Amino acid sequence: MSRGRGSEASVSQTQLEQIITDPEGTQVLVHAADELGRSLQSSGLATNQIRALFGEVRRIEGEWKIEGRRDQALRRLILLKPKMAYRARREGRAVAALVRVLDPALDLVVEAPGVGRNNTDENFQRFVDFFTAILAYHKAHGGR
């Protein structure tokens, strides 16, 4: 996690790989989500801006768990990337900071080389856990 004076928190590619692909990356997930939640709150990100994206992730998660619907859920997950780009452009710098972390995290779920179905399922769940933690810490640090 890096953050300079007056700048936003960021999550390195190495940290994202630990968070999304490593079953032992839970401590990294918690620390990164805490720092990112704090940074997003201080940058003025509103909870409803996070929830707009988070709600879609939760709907995808519900579909992911339904037998025979996983391929449709994966397609929706991939299509989340352009939706995030649109929201980042439309809603400004704070949303863009969140998308700069979530976009490469999504890549680790859907594009990781050599990842089988079980790993994709696990990586997706860790992505959901990470996003949930970011939202929780944003609120814990006073996000409105």
Helix-strand blueprint:
Blueprint: H1 13-21, H2 26-42, H3 47-64, H4 70-91, H5 93-110, H6 117-140
Helix pairs in contact: 1-2, 1-5, 2-6, 3-4, 3-6, 4-5, 5-6
What does this structure look like?
The protein has 144 residues and is mostly helical. The chain has one domain (13-140). 75% of the residues lie in helices and 0% in strands. Helix 3 (47-64) runs antiparallel to helix 6 (117-140) and helix 5 (93-110) runs antiparallel to helix 6 (117-140). The protein is globular, with a radius of gyration of 14 Å.
Structure summarized in a few sentences:
75% of the residues lie in helices and 0% in strands. By secondary structure, it is mainly alpha-helical.
